[in-house]
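Budget justification aside, the reviewers requested a transparent look at the raw inputs and outputs of the sequence design task funded under Objective 1. We therefore reproduce one unedited record. The lines immediately below are the structure tokens for a 318-residue chain.
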């Protein structure tokens, strides 16, 4: 009934003085104890499951510590049972899912704790999401079962296109549907990185030109460690090393203080547009086409009125 080991059952019955129900509770409590002891363990293995019911779909992941446990039939059965409960109840979030009741009467959270007690390995509900759209398609990576995705369209689309787009989400991990719905925090961060990278490159270009002018290879002095090691090897004289340090400090400082802000903004904006092309679903190159086209163009070619309205993705390896 509990799938616990024979000796664990025996000890529980002895502790409960033969009271069967109490023994079961002891075994369940043991599951909680094991979970607490292994709370700091990483759960990089597990199973991602998806379910679709009309316009609603769920993606859920039951995580564990080892591949050996994740491939166990009991583990997979529990993951499937949790997915079934999730699509039947469509809870709002992960905490609400934990409180849902399983067919055997225990909560999802209790069932996960009980499984921890059976295997002695940490189990955790690693992810849960609910998607609603007029037409939803799912994808689970069949080789390891640790990667899954859901894509919702505004209307039904052909199966091959639906499959291609959901596999695109799974493999290319876009940050948003388009640049228009890309989170402001992501855009701000990418722009800040692009600006700093552009500044650093401009300064470095000026420093490299000054170093080459006096006969010093920039690659030999690109860090203090390199300067010291290359001086020790005899590739740089002490005088050259000091000259390199002086150039890096003075030329670098002067260039950093006199950068063209508008030029920097233009270059950084170009880099931001490249980020959108590589990281937003509609602008990404469609991986399922032999011809070079964006995902948006691939969808439009099949149905001009169709579009992706939502997607979710989860991977235990990210």
């Amino acid at each position: 009934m509990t799938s616990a080991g024979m000796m664990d059952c025996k000890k529980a019955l002895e502790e409960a003085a033969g009271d069967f129900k109490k023994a079961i509770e002891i075994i369940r409590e043991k599951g909680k104890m094991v979970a607490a002891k292994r709370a700091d363990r990483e759960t990089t293995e597990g199973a991602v499951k998806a379910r679709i019911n009309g316009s609603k779909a769920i993606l859920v992941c039951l995580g564990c510590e080892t591949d050996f446990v994740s491939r166990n039939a009991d583990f997979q059965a529990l993951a499937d049972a949790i997915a079934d409960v999730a699509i039947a109840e469509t809870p709002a979030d992960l905490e609400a899912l934990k409180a849902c009741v399983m067919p055997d009467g225990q909560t999802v959270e209790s069932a996960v704790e009980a499984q921890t007690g059976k295997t002695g390995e940490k189990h955790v509900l690693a992810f849960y999401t609910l998607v609603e759209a007029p037409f939803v398609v799912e994808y689970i990576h069949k080789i390891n079962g640790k990667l899954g995705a859901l894509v919702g369209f505004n209307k039904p689309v052909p199966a091959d296109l639906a499959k291609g787009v959901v596999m695109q989400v799974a493999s290319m991990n876009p940050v948003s549907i388009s640049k228009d719905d890309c989170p402001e925090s992501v855009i701000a961060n990418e722009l800040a990185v692009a600006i700093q990278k552009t500044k650093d490159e401009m300064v470095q270009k000026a420093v490299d030109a000054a170093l080459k002018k006096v006969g010093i290879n920039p690659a030999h002095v690109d860090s203090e460690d390199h300067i010291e090691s290359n001086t020790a090897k005899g590739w740089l004289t002490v005088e050259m090393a000091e000259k390199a340090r002086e150039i890096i400090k003075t030329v670098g400082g002067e260039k950093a203080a006199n950068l063209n802000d508008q030029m920097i903004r233009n270059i950084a904006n170009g880099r931001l547009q490249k980020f959108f092309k590589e990281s937003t679903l509609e602008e990404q190159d469609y991986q399922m086409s032999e011809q070079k086209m964006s995902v948006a163009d691939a969808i439009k070619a099949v149905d001009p009125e169709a579009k992706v309205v939502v997607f979710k993705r989860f991977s235990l390896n990210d």
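Residues 184-276 form one domain. Residues 195 and 266 are 9 Å apart (CA to CA). Computational costs for records of this kind are itemized in the attached budget.
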